[in-house]
Specification:
Layout lengths: L1 E3 H4 L9 H10 L3 E7 L7 E11 L7 E6 L5 E6 L9 E5 L14 E3 L2 E3 L2 E2 L27 H4 L5 E6 L10 H12 L22 E3 L11 E3 L10 H9 L7 H13 L5 E3 L7 E5 L6 E2 L5 E2 L6 E5 L2 E5 L3 E2 L12 E3 L1
Parallel strand pairs: 11-14
Antiparallel strand pairs: 1-10, 2-10, 3-4, 3-6, 4-5, 6-9, 7-8, 12-20, 13-20, 14-17, 15-16, 17-18, 18-19
Helix pairs in contact: 5-6
Length: 335
């Protein structure tokens, strides 16, 4: 369990430094195996706004960008990213910057044009394993702001090596509850409920055939998901620190709730569900293609979520690829 110290301290904040907190948890049986920095971003990595783009005079795939990096400075930076556009906010690596992967940025001449820095992708900043194009920052952060400030990188990750009997600590709130008990500090209470008008009136029949394995199953239909929406940067960053990569708003929200509160959730594409939801045991003759690309043949003791066409998910473990949400999903069934 990877725990962001900054996130944890939003729930409970004892007067202990990072090492003291880690030691207290370890002595209580929640062993902290490692303490890792949340990131390593140079003070020469800043927010930049692309003010102007022109074609490179000697390279079809390169463009020359005028980038506002704050303090009334516009730098010329040569960029080959297809998503570069005027008005885009991204992270600019200034001359002298060192990227997390070890690359040092210097002033260079690219096919006859002097480039005073580099526009960075998320993977070059160590924020994602792989990425396409330069980082597109939502909102309008101030040009010249340090990337370390924008990403709130002044944080440590406590890597807890939990034993099987401490499933209650598989969430930020669960660990916070333990810290509160150990230090006699006040634990923040979650919001009890949020009043929302019910707009989706449709119902999806649910049948509990295996009530001994799953006595209670609930879900909600949500219609009209905005397919143009993107996951806010702060949610992406918290998921990254927990070891989870961003997969789009619908999935990211379910993962965020699971990490913070310990409540597992799963989103199905409503239009890919045939007829109804049934919770039953496998019959031993079925196979299921999972979200991670693997194919399993559930045994008769395995609990499944199925519809009229067959298995949709391995209950409590992983969803199936056939009913997965995508960036075009507008209607979901939230389990």
């Amino acid at each position: 369990m990877r725990v962001s110290e900054a996130w944890l301290r939003e729930w409970v904040s004892p007067k202990l430094n990072t090492n003291e907190l880690a030691n207290r948890l370890t002595m209580a049986g929640l062993e902290v195996g490692n303490i890792d920095p949340a990131g390593d971003l140079s003070d020469k990595l800043v927010v930049g706004r692309i003010e102007q783009i022109s074609a490179h005079p000697d390279a079809d795939r390169l463009r020359v960008c005028k980038v506002n990096v704050g303090r009334a400075r516009n730098l010329t930076i040569v960029c080959g990213a297809a998503n570069a556009r005027e008005g885009l906010y991204t992270i600019a690596a200034l001359v002298g910057a060192k990227l997390p992967g070890g690359m040092a940025i210097s002033k260079t001449t690219v096919r006859g044009v002097t480039s005073s820095g580099m526009l960075c992708s998320a993977s070059e900043l160590g924020l994602e394993e792989s990425s396409t194009g330069i980082l597109d920052l939502a909102g309008k952060p101030a040009a010249g702001m340090l990337a370390s400030t924008l990403f709130q990188i002044d944080d440590c990750i406590l890597d807890l090596e939990l034993t099987p009997n401490r499933g209650d600590c598989l969430s930020i709130r669960g660990v916070a509850r333990e810290v509160a008990a150990l230090t006699n500090c006040r634990l923040k209470k979650p919001v009890k409920s949020v009043e929302m008008a019910v707009q989706a009136r449709g119902k999806l029949p649910i049948k509990l055939t295996a009530s001994d394995g799953c006595p209670h199953y609930v879900g909600r239909i949500i219609r009209g998901v905005d397919v143009s929406a993107v996951t806010p940067l702060w949610i992406k960053e918290r998921l990254r620190r927990a070891g989870i990569r961003s997969l789009g708003p619908s999935v990211d929200v379910t993962n965020y709730v699971m990490i913070e509160l310990g409540q597992p959730m799963h989103a199905f594409d409503l239009e890919k569900i045939n007829g109804h939801i049934e919770v039953r045991y496998a019959n031993g003759r079925e196979k299921l293609n999972l979200l991670d690309g693997s194919t399993v043949r559930p045994e008769k003791t395995d609990l499944l979520i199925v519809d009229k066409s067959g298995p949709l998910a391995l209950a409590g473990v992983m969803g199936g690829a056939a009913s997965a949400v995508s960036d075009q999903t507008q209607n979901i069934f939230l389990e």
